[in-house]
User: What shape does this take?
Amino acid sequence: MPRYFFHICDGEEVLDDVGTVLASREEARAHAIVVAGELLRDAGRKFWSGTEWRLRVTDETGTRVCTLRFLAENHGAD
Assistant: This one.
């Protein structure tokens, strides 16, 4: 089974050098959503900084599978 890597960029790039073994590119895309959800949950207030962050998924050859982009903008009074 192929290995997929889930890299995070939120001002600085954090490369996944271990990866996750998954059955297919489709499964890697589905797993990216789970990973992103966990990251959003753990980010808390930091997520509202107004800077975009990305989760980029690549396969073993470095070919991009997908990229998820996130940006939150707070328009209300604090």
Observations:
- The mean pLDDT is 89.
